[in-house]
Amino acid sequence: MPSSQGLATTDSIALEKNYRTQYPQERYFIKQPVAPGSYLGPVDASLPNADKIPLLFQPFQVKDLTLANRVIVAPMCMFSSQDGFFTDYHLVHLGSFATHGAGLILAEATAVSPEGRISPADTGLWDDKQIPGLKRIANFVHAQGSKLGIQLAHAGRKASVKAYYETLPESAYWKDNVVGPSGGAEFQWDPTHHVPRELSIQEIEETVKAFGAAAARAAQAGLDTVEIHGAHGYLIHQFLSPVSNHRTDRYGGSLENRARFLLEVVRAVRENFPAEKPVLLRVSATDFVEHLDQPSWDIEQTVQIAKWVKDAGVDVFHVSAGGNTAQQQIKAFPGYQVPFAEQVKKEVPGLVVVAVGIITDGKQAEEVLEREKADLIAVGRGFLKHPNFVLNAALDLNVKAKFSQQYERGRI
Predict the structure, then answer these.
(1) Are 94 and 79 in contact (CB under 8 A)?
(2) In this predicted model, what pLDDT tens digit does every residue of 88-107 receive, in sequence order?
(3) Residue 410 domain-assigned?
(4) Containing structural domain, residue 298
(5) What are the beta bridge partners of residue 107?
(6) Model confidence pLDDT, tens digit, residues 356-410
(7) What is the CATH number of the domain that holds 125?
């Protein structure tokens, strides 16, 4: 497989020149001398500790990636793609977060192969033709002063399902080619999902290569980071958990074997993405099936793989939970997943940790950082409710945050 360094230089330069020739008007941006979401000072200097800069609005650096603040837009499926291509919808959707000051934006779970999509309306990065649309978004995000990453994914046994607001013809689906670490009716996620077949060793190897190739395309598109999707019951999580992985070969059984696929993916991604840019991994810390009294995925195993992936090249560990079985029992409340991130941070020194899970405002996010439960904060649905989540969080913390040049009049 070609190295990322070559793809990120020769090919990306040619791609950029071609893009500028075809779309010169889309290369015009109003200069942002200070990135939106940056700290400018207190709103009210008379308040106690007004001169103290909240951690949430202090810059953060990992490798060559520097964020204006510590708020990340978590990946959220939009089911708004055709044949895997990024569209104007994605430009507006992701671009709005940049305009409103998010430090890092992670594009939705993007399939590394056609059959790896959750639905036919998912984005993909399995074809070079899908690069320009993504690059257009990256250009816009960068012009605003924000950073852009993408979540690389394979849905495994949760693939080929309907987007919840769109009905496509049956020919759009691939119900006979839904795969997982183990196959058969007992591994069907629930009655609304398809019965998976077991991946062969050759198919596993091809999937690992697909992750690497997608990472190389992300580099060509000029992205600042990539996140490997190992959470929420998708293929990597399926391999990790004994609930969904009953294999008896080198990819099943012991934790070392169940983690083998993940580690191979990490190495492939790391080899095909610029060394100076960070690689993220999102995981589910638990299957939430303790009530079943059977082997499952839990926080102790999560801590162990955190140590392994750190050695394999992961720089940032994004801790979520659940999604691997319909039998899960989740009691969701503000910050309910933060303790998992806190445990990883305490037990794996040197690994940057992201907390997520119903973080609703600036004060709650700041408390997570102040108590050293995590290094960065990810927010998903909060950004859907309020694309200006960062600016609202700033007001919660008596922070005057930079607006984009075009929006400055909205401050008054």
Answers:
(1) no
(2) 999 999 999 999 999 999 99
(3) no
(4) 4-405
(5) 150
(6) 999 999 999 999 999 999 999 999 999 999 999 999 999 999 999 999 999 999 8
(7) 3.20.20.70
